[in-house]
Amino acid sequence: MKNIVSSAIAIVVMTAVFGFGYPALMTGLGQAAFSKQANGSLIELNGKVVGSKLAAQEFKGPRYFHVRPSAVSYNAAGTSFANLGPTNPDLAKNVKAAAEAILKLEGPYNPGLSIHDIPVDAVITSASGIDPDISPAYARLQSKRIASVRHLPLATVQQLIDKYDHGRSWGFFGEPGVNVLELNLALDRTAR
User: Please, what's the b/e burial string for 128-156 (b: 16 or more CB within 10 A of its CB; e: otherwise)?
Assistant: First the structure.
């Protein structure tokens, strides 16, 4: 009986400490030290939340920069990657379909564009399926279309790409990237 009581007390204490106390402490520290990040790095426009800096949302139409393909239709509730290996024929079909769509969309604005000119991130899903960033190379590929459709100088669009290119983390981790939501919002502000 003594062991049962001791075990019950240990369960209650451990649940209180590690189930409630520790998460409350970490949440409090996160709110105090990193409030914006702890709340999802939300981006507001005119007082209204339009998205998160951390999760991609699909942009359609020729006026906007497009994000990477998504294995989860840009649904942040169920992030996942395509899980297709290099020998899986479905991967080749998906890449081919994505490349053909890019050639169709970007070809008229980029004469001579071939499948070999398309950056890899334009045709392959990211690990999460909702990566908000694209490579500067993919952004530059889209820049001629954006400039033409919005009647902006190409240099203006490319300056925006350079401005929103966040580079590598700490100068050497990962790859450079451009946040598509931030870039498209800046583009809307520029084109007003």
Answer: bbbbbbbbbbbbbbbbbbbbeebebeeee
